[in-house]
Amino acid sequence: MSSQEKIKKLIDLRTEAKLGGGQKRVDGQHAKGKMTARERIEALLDEGSFEEFDMFVTHRCTNFGMQKKKFMGDGVVTGHGTIDGRVVYVFSKDFTVLGGSLSETMAMKICKVMDMAMKVGAPIIGINDSGGARIQEGVTALAGYAEIFQRNIEASGVVPQISAIFGPCAGGDVYSPALTDFIMMTEQNSYMFVTGPKVVKTVTGEDITVEDLGGAHVHASKSGVSHFELENEEEGLLLIRKLLSYMPQNNLEEAPIVSTGDPIDRMDDVLNTIIPDNPNMPYDMKEVIHTLADDGEFLEVHRNYAKNILVGFVRMGGQSVGVVANQPSFLAGVLDCDASRKAARFVRFCDAFNIPLLTLVDVPGFLPGSGQEYAGIITHGAKLMFAYGEATVPKITVTLRKSYGGAHDVMSCKQLKSDLNYAWPSAEIAVMGAKGAIEVLEGRAMSKIEDPEERKKYAAEKENEYTEKFSNPYNAAAHGYIDDVIEPRNSRFRIIRGFQSLQTKKTSLPPKKHGNIPL
Ligand code: HXC
């Protein structure tokens, strides 16, 4: 063969490899409204930046006539490229090759990019669309999964890991995404479950559809497995780019500064009127977050799960900040099991990747009742407390209104090593609300008052007395638990200046192998 012929052969082989499982299957993929593995990568990365690895790898299986079912690259496309000029490593399962099912060699390809990402300190993005372990390979496919899982675990807290689910994700396939930082799923075509509807029916007798068992909406709203529910793949690929813009490349770096023209000393009169005079009236905490953030931008995480707490990313003065905020307009912003888990995980992500935390507090307490106790509210509440207490990134807390009881302690109070604690004049920092407190303190006295009207009057007087004394920020400020009571309209400036003053913060925890966070 001449040199020219050899080059032509290379070009032909590349063309063949790029077709994955062949044109018919590519057409089938498009007919379902899905992109191919390579199309997804092209749309995700900066134009022309993709460098592919292992295009010529094929599987080694000989069982069940597999010698005749070989495709170059096998069922995954891997490599690296850039997003906004920063290096990322990516693997994208190719459903056109044996349903993207995982072979030993595919696992080897995926592990290679994960190892490279760890070596250079770059994020790992996995795009999933697969039928799980390659059945013909048996135990080597299972071993391949475990190789990937181990790398997910070791990369956790070292480089950001993001999983997009754009098709089936079943059996062994679900656990790699579950070990990563963020999962997103498309409304059409994507589902995640450990066992599918047929197995469910056989084992438990339950009749359930694929969507109800593991569709995007179920995982974004009920289980909390998925952080984002997407209309389509394009939205997901753009979201990955946006998410990464708030993150550093690895745990030794800081997130990039993205300056805007939004002045840091912008005054927001709307914040002076947002808290209703009636303490039982709700308001939308999202409005507060949008008002505080640079250009009003808030990238909300877990939007449809545990809506009584909000978590997500903003920038303040160009710096990436993780926000955790009670939401008074949903379940009065109460802390329950799901809200505690949701917030704890987010706090730990931010802490692992040097993203400062802003906590906005308006919480009436923990949700009472047997349902919550049986579901382990003690453990889950402790988890959020643990996450805050362990976090060493700069932490600023602003109490807008209620901050009662155990929830006050949990929501990044001063003693959990929050760096700066501010309160608005509307703050109510106390052991509990006036009504509950008076029932406990004055119950005996009130039971002796026979006339109901008199009893009501007595209770109202005592509640007023309690409110005067406790439903304000000044008691806590008098103890130094609140550093300053601030005018709401001035909050953006005070928070940004606070974070600026904390930029050189250095704190460490006592040496240990790792803590034992209540799971
Ligand atoms: C080998 C597979 C496969 C698999 C799909 N294919 N899944 N090959 N191993 N796991 C092949 C099909 O045989 C078919 O090949 C091609 O991929 C496309 O699949 P279809 O079934 O035609 O596609 P579709 O109708 O869209 O259905 C997709 C699907 C279905 C729902 C994912 O294929 C399916 O149910 N697959 C099995 C899912 C499963 O049970 N996985 C769990 C594996 S055990 P041909 O050549 O015929 O077109 C596991 C445990 C690991 O993962 C535990 C680790 C901790």
Layout: helices, strands, pairs:
Elements: H1 3-18, H2 23-31, H3 37-44, E1 51-53, E2 76-83, E3 86-93, H4 104-120, E4 124-130, H5 139-155, E5 161-170, H6 175-178, E6 182-186, E7 191-193, H7 197-204, H8 210-214, H9 216-223, E8 228-230, H10 233-245, H11 270-273, H12 285-292, E9 299-301, E10 309-316, E11 319-326, H13 337-352, E12 357-363, H14 370-374, H15 377-390, E13 395-404, H16 405-410, E14 420-423, E15 428-430, H17 434-447, H18 452-470, H19 474-478, E16 484-485, H20 491-501
Helix pairs in contact: 4-5, 13-15, 17-18
The chain binds hexanoyl-coenzyme A.
Hexanoyl-coenzyme A is lined by residues 98-99, 101, 131-136, 142, 145, 168, 170-172, 175.
Structural write-up:
The chain is an alpha/beta fold. The chain folds into three domains: 3-245, Alpha-Beta Complex (2-enoyl-CoA Hydratase, Chain A, domain 1), CATH 3.90.226; 270-432 and 472-501, 2-enoyl-CoA Hydratase, Chain A, domain 1 (Alpha-Beta Complex); 434-470. The chain is 40% helix and 18% strand. The chain contains 20 helices and 16 strands. The strands form two sheets. Strands 1, 2, 3, 4, 5, 6, 7 and 8 form an eight-stranded mixed beta sheet that branches. Helix 13 links the parallel strand 11 and strand 12 (357-363). Helix 4 runs parallel beside helix 5, helix 13 packs parallel to helix 15 and helix 17 packs across helix 18. The longest helix has 19 residues, at 452-470. The radius of gyration is 27 Å and the shape is elongated. The structure holds hexanoyl-coenzyme A. Hexanoyl-coenzyme A binds next to helix 5 and strand 5. Residues 98-99, 101, 131-136, 142, 145, 168, 170-172, 175 line the site of hexanoyl-coenzyme A. Belongs to the AccD/PCCB family. This is Propionyl-CoA carboxylase beta chain. InterPro entries: AccD/PCCB, AcCoA_carboxyl_beta, ClpP/crotonase-like_dom_sf, COA_CT_C, COA_CT_N. GO terms for molecular function: acetyl-CoA carboxylase activity; propionyl-CoA carboxylase activity.
